[in-house]
Write a structure and sequence with these properties.
The complex is a heterodimer of chains A (139) and B (490). With 139 residues, chain A is mostly helical. Chain A has a domain at 52-139. Helix content of chain A is 64%, strand content 3%. Chain A has helices at 8-13, 18-25, 50-87, 101-108, 110-138; strands at residues 95-96, 99-100. A two-stranded antiparallel ribbon of chain A has the order 1-2. In chain A, a hairpin with a 2-residue loop joins strand 1 (95-96) and strand 2. The radius of gyration of chain A is 23 Å and the shape is rod-shaped. Chain B has a single domain, classed as Amino acid/polyamine transporter I (Up-down Bundle), CATH 1.20.1740.10. Chain B is built from 21 helices and no strands. Chain B has helices at 3-25, 31-36, 43-54, 57-70, 76-91, 93-99, 104-112, 115-148, 152-203, 212-215, 227-243, 245-251, 257-288, 301-309, 313-349, 354-374, 380-404, 410-437, 442-446, 449-465, 475-483. The longest helix of chain B has 52 residues, at 152-203. Chain B is globular. Chain B starts with a helix and ends in a 7-residue tail after the last helix. At the A-B interface, helix 1, helix 2, helix 3, strand 2 and helix 4 of A face helix 2, helix 5, helix 9, helix 13 and helix 21 of B.
């Protein structure tokens, strides 16, 4: 079971041959090319019993639920934001640097929202996977 | 404008891209290296490369031009271009990386176990890629015409040739370097001029300027939003991003699913920062360059504004920088598209060899060149938006349902992709002539995604439901592979 932050530590550890990885940013002669056939098949060491299937289905369901909730959250928040920018009184008349506040807000306001939802989603998705891992390792 | 500046900037970017490309050639040896850079690209590199590949002529020139032309409705374009990556993160990033396939057609065949589903997907990928390259070449034509005075076709031809040579010689690993470099070049090339222009306007005597109310009329402001068009545009941009062939292929270069997610979040950040600058250019243009607010001309705003506001050597230097960035945009997006198209064409038609990839790369560059030479650009952001609508109606339903719904069958996917392609293709190609007869339908044909995407999904689901026997045998194993985290390696 992964102990450190799921992103950084797991990602770095997953490389068996560190020298080959360096090759990308500091290219030098080498071979060790990973072909698609040589890639380990992630599902292959998953047990085939019924319980394993239940675990997988529950993982897929929780990831899908998470994705849909995050997407809806973004759409609803963006819609509310657009309505406020469009109809809040005075935003068209207030100027900052010569540009109406309503234009400025629409031009920069949605991006922080997308990044925040993206960051929260990644944490939750990694947590779902960590839970799946601990369940299957116990079994 | 001084043509020497244009020539210098264009030649410098072309040389830099080619040099970095050939530098990568020395390590591109095996087939696997060629296609997906052996999956050993770090998230930051990868995210920069994704950003570099994604920020096309539409982003670099088109958004500022459209803000100048139509007002705040254009602000939804960069929002959609960025939020498309949020959808990609939520629904496809990690599973797609775990699928272990090289290209979207590979994914389709592995998931649906059908050669026909693969062929339909390949055809769509090729059509989408070609029509996405065309605006890049048109942007190059515009840039060359405005900045050097040479005829338009020189720009299109130059970009097509450079891309064909670099891709055929180096493959994708070298392209990863080129793309990452080009993201930072593009960001610098817009950010520095914006900062200098703002300082110049704030610090001295500003040149002739429109009054605030004339530059930003409420009639073009956020309050006068066309709801249908905006919603439909957002459907196209949010969902279209997931189906773009050159975007998907780049996710295979992440080492695992977790890294794929991390990369995507970094991409969100990079794009958010980048889009502040075309937006600022658009605002500046509304105040200081209202005279070029005409279709076909507005896209040149980013190129002509620095010289106008700061005449003299500083303005010329800034212009050179912007031209370099614009060329980086054309080169990087086109080469990303050519890499993915060449991957698809060579695997499906030419046996998947390195030589086949090279032949396919040359072919994928020259077909769009012919189209670009034969047609006239009416607005870069708009034409790229239509490609997104087409992608959202065809590849996106198949991908999302393929990843999340075990009931998808090959017949369902083919029916859905065909429906989406026919409907959105007809709306895009025949829209102008149909709405001349029936003016009421014009908005629905000009922004078709809001109805074509749901219909494509509906057809996919209904046909799959009626095709219970067609369920691929390996569905459960494949879905397990998509969603189960990689085993922690020894």
């Amino acid at each position: 079971m992964s102990s450190g932050p799921p992103g950084g530590a797991a990602g770095d550890r997953s490389h068996r041959d560190a020298p080959a990885r360096v090759r990308v940013t500091a290219p030098r002669a080498g071979s060790a090319a990973a072909s698609i056939g040589a890639q380990p098949y992630p599902g292959s060491d998953a047990p085939t019993s019924d319980i394993a299937g239940v675990y997988v289905r529950s993982l897929v369901r929780s990831q899908l639920r998470l994705a849909i909730v995050s997407a809806l959250g973004f759409v609803v928040a963006t819609t509310c934001f657009a309505l406020v920018v469009a109809f809040a009184p005075g935003l068209d008349e207030a100027f900052l640097g010569g540009v109406p506040l309503s234009w400025l807000l629409l031009g920069i306001g949605v991006y922080p929202l997308a990044i925040t939802i993206g960051g929260l989603f990644v944490r939750a998705a990694n947590r779902n996977e960590a839970r799946y891992r601990s369940l299957t390792e116990e079994a | 404008m001084n043509p020497a500046i244009g020539y210098t900037a264009i030649v410098a970017v072309a040389l830099a891209s080619a040099l970095i490309g050939f530098y990568g050639l020395r390590v591109s040896r095996t087939t696997s290296d060629f296609y997906v850079a052996s999956r050993r690209v770090r998230p930051w590199w990868n995210a920069s490369a994704i950003g570099g590949e994604y920020l096309s002529a539409a982003s670099f020139l088109g958004i500022a031009g459209l803000i100048l032309l139509t007002g705040s409705a254009a602000l939804w374009f960069p929002i959609g271009y960025t939020a498309g990556y949020l959808m990609l993160l939520l629904f496809v990033a990690a599973p797609l990386r775990r699928s272990g396939a090289y290209t979207i057609p590979d994914f389709t065949e592995a998931r649906l176990e059908s050669r026909w589903a693969r062929r339909v997907t390949s055809l769509l990928v090729i059509v989408i890629g070609w029509f996405y390259i065309v605006p890049q070449l048109q942007g190059a034509a515009l840039t060359v015409r405005i900045t050097t005075g040479l005829p338009s076709w020189v720009g299109s031809l130059a970009v097509a040739v450079i891309v064909a040579v670099v891709v055929a010689a180096g493959g994708m690993r070298s392209i990863t370097f080129v793309q990452a470099f080009q993201f930072w070049l593009k960001l610098t090339a817009l950010a520095v001029p914006v900062v200098v222009l703002l300082l110049a306007i704030g610090g001295g005597d500003p040149p002739a300027q429109l009054t605030r109310a004339d530059a930003f009329p409420a009639a073009a402001g956020p309050g006068s939003l066309d709801v249908y068009r905006t919603v439909s545009l957002m459907v196209a941009l949010l969902l279209g991003t997931l189906g773009l062939p050159h975007v998907l292929v780049r996710f295979y270069t992440n080492p695992d699913g977790v890294a794929a997610r991390r990369t995507t979040v970094i991409v969100l950040v990079l794009l958010s920062v980048f889009y502040l600058f075309p937006t600022a250019f658009g605002f500046l243009g509304r105040a200081f360059a209202p005279d070029i607010a005409q279709p076909g001309q507005a896209d040149a705003l980013v190129l002509v504004l620095p010289d106008r506001l700061i005449p003299g050597p500083v303005g010329q230097l800034l212009t050179a920088l912007v031209i370099a960035g614009a060329f980086a945009a054309f080169l990087s997006t086109s080469s990303g598209l050519v890499v993915s198209l060449a991957g698809v064409i060579s695997q499906d038609l030419l046996g998947g060899s390195v030589r086949g990839f090279r032949i396919a790369a040359v072919a994928s560059s020259f077909v769009p060149l012919v189209v670009a030479l034969a047609t006239e650009s009416t607005g870069l952001a708009g034409s790229v938006g239509l490609v997104f609508a087409f992608t959202a109606s065809t590849l996106c339903p198949m991908l999302i349902l393929g990843i999340w719904w075990r009931g998808l069958t090959a017949r369902g996917a083919i029916a859905g992709m065909t429906t989406g392609a026919v409907l959105s293709g007809a709306a895009i190609l025949g829209g102008a002539s149909i709405s001349a007869l029936v003016p009421e339908v014009r908005p629905f044909l000009e922004q078709p995604a809001a109805w074509t995407v749901p219909l494509a999904v509906l057809v996919t689901v209904l046909v799959s439901r009626g095709d219970r026997r067609g369920l691929p045998r390996g569905t459960d194993a494949f879905l397990t592979r998509l969603h189960v985290p990689e085993p922690e390696r020894r």
